[in-house]
Specification:
Number of helices: 4
Distance between the termini: 23 Å
Number of strands: 6
Order of helices and strands: EHEHEEEHEH
Amino acid sequence: MAMAESAIAVLGAGSWGSALAMVLARHGVPAALWGRDRAAIGLMQSTRCNVRYLPEFRFPESLALSADLGAVLGSARYWLIVTPSHAFGALLGEALALAPAAP
């Protein structure tokens, strides 16, 4: 299933990535939050919050959530990579390999 187009893909569903994605979505910016852990993203989709890091804050209904990096990248114009520094390079390499070719 294709994702709705997003202005920004927030790559990293920890506390900081979740918080930034919520702020973007609450201010009308089409955003998608990606996380590597499918089970954690599934829980976030069903509860509409990040129960591990930010349980008291609900995700806006407009915020898309996915563990499918290719789908998130394919739907976004910009990327905001919000991962620990030790994971940044690997995620960037994976994202560049999956990203659709620029027009």
